[in-house]
Amino acid sequence: MVGIGKGTKMLRTMLAGSKKYTAIGLLGKATDTLDATGKVTEEKPYDQITKGDLENVLQKFTGDIMQVPPLYSALKKDGERLSTLMKRGEAVEAKPARPVRVYSLSLQQFQPPLFTLDVECGGGFYVRSLVSDIGKELSTCATMQELTRTKHGPFTLEEHALYEDKWTIDEIARSLEHCTSLLPGEPSHKKLKTEHPGETAVSCEDK
């Protein structure tokens, strides 16, 4: 999400609330990044795993849980991202487990070695770590293949995404007006005024 000029004041409100994702995991393989972009670091059999096994495991990852963030992440050490340090080949220690919240977690599809999850979570949660931890809990390994954010706060991919064929000034303005109406306590024009007219803010989450 990008905020330009007066819009930078609204980012905190827009970025509040839970997030919902659809994630596709791959059983039997682990990578250094915990997703499909990384190098394979481990392979284990998975044929013994059933749909019921996977559904039972998901219960352990619902609610308030502790999670260890991935080494390849936007978290920082001495002012630098862990992912940058890892790419330079520097030794990086895993961050300690921290509390995160999972509001809901369900299995949508199971076609070994692939499985599809629907997860709604709070801030600071890494879906890559979830998929990896599920693999370990099943006595195998797993890595995330695909990730799609389907909801953030009051905004959903289905209702509020503006597709390329509607990238016109009028459609963009109409979409912004609709999305802004969903925000609680919409600030007045005066409150949106900034000391730096060219100020731009970017929020980027590496999940």
UniProtKB/TrEMBL annotation:
InterPro entries recorded: PsdUridine_synth_cat_dom_sf, PsdUridine_synth_N, tRNA_psdUridine_synth_TruB, TruB_C
Family membership: Belongs to the pseudouridine synthase TruB family.
Organism of provenance: Aquila chrysaetos chrysaetos
Gene3D superfamilies documented for this protein: Pseudouridine synthase
Record key words, sorted: Isomerase, tRNA processing
Span of domain Pseudouridine synthase II N-terminal: 2-127
Protein name stated in the entry: tRNA pseudouridine(55) synthase
Enzyme class (EC, first level): isomerase
tRNA pseudouridylate synthase B C-terminal domain span: 128-160
UniProt-listed Enzyme Commission number(s): 5.4.99.25
Residue ranges of the region described as Disordered: 186-207
Recorded GO MF terms: pre-miRNA binding; tRNA pseudouridine(55) synthase activity
Alphabetical list of Pfam families matching this protein: TruB_C_2 (PF16198), TruB_N (PF01509)
Ranges of Basic and acidic residues composition bias in the record: 194-207
Biological process, per Gene Ontology: mRNA pseudouridine synthesis; positive regulation of pre-miRNA processing; tRNA modification
